[in-house]
Amino acid sequence: MKEIDLSLPSKFMDACVAKDKDEALRLVKLMAEQANFTLKAELDALDFAAGSLSSEYRLPIQIMINELRNYEA
Fold first, then answer.
1. Number of H helices, E strands in the chain
2. How many whole angstroms separate alpha carbon 19 and alpha carbon 15?
3. Which of 2, 9, 23, 45 is the most exposed place for a label (fewest CB within 10 A)?
4. Cβ contacts of 53 within 8 Å, gap of 6 or more
5. Which residue, 21, 17, 65, 10, is CA-closest to 43?
6. Do 28 and 69 touch, CB atoms closer than 8 A?
7. Helix, strand or coil for residue 53?
């Protein structure tokens, strides 16, 4: 069984705040692989989870998720 890296969501959040699109994409792909999700499903889950964060983090994450969806489309 593969080990799951629980630090990936916080690293993704940091990459979103730093506006590092390449790092955010790399991390979301890793998270999707670990959860056995499609990229779209992982982005949907992250978007839903971001709704419970303060606007300081929610807005950069939602903007990055929209950029990643457009980039991957």
1. 4, 0
2. 6
3. 2
4. 61
5. 65
6. no
7. coil
